[in-house]
Amino acid sequence: MSKDEHEKELMVLHRSRKAFLIEYICGTLLLLFLIMIRVKGIGLSSAFQTFILLIAALAFISPEISRIMLRYRITSSKISIIKGLLKQTKKNVHFLPLGYVPEINLKQSRIQRLLNYGTIFVHGSGENSFEIKEVDHPQKILELIEELIDKYRTPMQK
Q: How far is the C-alpha of 118 from the C-alpha of 15, rounded, in Å?
């Protein structure tokens, strides 16, 4: 297998925006509140209005920063878990050692199941354990990981 084929990028994942639904709803409600008091002509101090606007902005910005700070890169030979933006930590988990992984699980709450996002847990030995948190279409990702692990299993393991 050549180096280019060995490192073919299959997918880059971020946490789902659906995981931050409460934050987005709160930010939207605060903005609607500001609009309503403007329309109704209710007099609130500009400092208080600015404070509410800042909290609403924070409700939108915070999840986006969280999404940027954690990403998963799935290639044909490994999964890279990258945390951080300027100062990064990167964990590479190759599929060959994952051939010995005893379990791969998907966890979804009722709401996550309805919205089609969830967390994938890969329980291996030592440093081969990891989780892919709150991603969209987790069943498809789980199946992809299982296929890639199976591809790298030696004939004796199968």
A: 9
Determine whether 15 is exposed, middle or buried from the number of CB atoms within 10 Å of its CB (0-12, 13-18, 19+). buried
**And the tokens for 124?**
């291996």
Q: Which CATH architecture has domain 3-15+72-152?
A: Roll (2.30)
Predicted local distance difference test score (pLDDT) of residue 43: 81
Is residue 121 helix, strand or coil?
Answer: strand
| Domain spans, the chain | 3-15+72-152, 17-66
pLDDT band at 127 (very low <50, low <70, confident <90, very high): low
Q: Specify the range with the lowest mean pLDDT, choosing from 30-34, 43-47, 108-112, 149-153.
A: 149-153
Tell which residue, 84, 100, 83, 101, has the closest CA to residue 92. Answer: 83
Half-sphere exposure of 1 (CA within 13 A, CB side): 9
| Residue recorded with tokens 């940027």 | 68
String of DSSP letters for 69-111:
HEEEEEESSEEEEEE-SSS-EEEEEEHHHHTT--EEEEE--HH
Residue 38 has pLDDT above 80, yes or no: yes
